[in-house]
Amino acid sequence: MGRLPDDLLGRAGYYQADASCVLVEGTWEAALASANTALDAMDRVLSGTNAVYALCRPPGHHACRDQAGGFCYLNNTAVAANWASSRGARVAIVDVDVHHGNGTQAIFYGRRDVLTVSVHGDPAWLYPYYAGYADETGAGIGEGFNSNLPVPLMSDGEAYLAALSAGCAAVRQFSPDLLIIALGLDASRDDPFACMAIDESGFGRMGRMLGMLSLPTLIVQEGGYPSPTLGQSLAAFLNGFGSR
Ligand SMILES: [Zn+2]
C-alpha cells in the first residue's frame, strides 16, 4: 500500500528494503561522506581527469531514492551520474558487482539520459532477488535504456566477461560522454559470499575491457568483502583498466 506511518519504528521499516542497514551514531555522516567522495571524483572527471577511482564506503548501488538496503544508504554512483547528467553529460553506468544494482536501476528506470547496465549473478538465487532479470529494460521514455545481464552462479571469468562484452556493446551503441563503473569485487572466487569464481586475471581482463571503451571514467567502489585476495582483485582490475 506504500503508506508512510508516523511512528519512528514504522518509518525505519518504510525506508529500508531489508535488515542489513543498521543506523547508529555516525551512520549519516559516513553515508554522506561516501556520496561526497563520488561527487568529488566526478568533479575531477568533468574537469578533465581521464579516470578517477572513488573508494566509497559504505557502498551505494542497492540504495533507491528513499530506501536503504544491502549495506547501502545513499546511492553514490547514482548521485554522481545524476550530477554529471544535470550538467549536460550523457552517462553510461556499468555495474560489475556480483549483486544486481537494483537501486541504480530503480533511480534511472524511467530515464534515457543515463544508461544502466548490470552484470551480476542470477537473482533467482542471489540478492536482491526481486530485480535484476533480463526482461527489465526500462519504462516509458527510459524503455531500452536498462540492460541486465545475469550470469549463472559459480561461473568463471569466461562467462562473466562474455556478459560484460555484451554490456560494453550496449554502451558503445549509447555513445555516452562518460562512463561510471560500479566496481564490486565480490564476484571473486575468494569472496566470502562465494557465489562466483572470478580469479585475478579475470578482474584484469574485466578492467581492460572497460578501459577499451576509451571514455572519461569514474570508478566507484561498490561491494567486495574481506578475503586474502581482495586487494589483488582491485589492483588487477585497475592495472587492466590502465593498460587499455
Ligand atoms: Zn555485491
TrEMBL record:
CDD domains: HDAC_classII_APAH. Residues 17-239 form the Histone deacetylase domain. It comes from the Bacteria. The keyword Metal-binding applies. InterPro entries: HDACs (IPR000286), His_deacetylse_dom (IPR023801), His_deacetylse_dom_sf (IPR037138), Ureohydrolase_dom_sf (IPR023696). Keywords: Hydrolase, Metal-binding, Zinc. Its cofactor is Zn(2+). Coiled coil: none annotated. PANTHER family: HISTONE DEACETYLASE 8 (PTHR10625:SF17), HISTONE DEACETYLASE HDAC1-RELATED (PTHR10625). Belongs to the histone deacetylase family. This is Histone deacetylase family protein. It comes from Mesorhizobium humile.
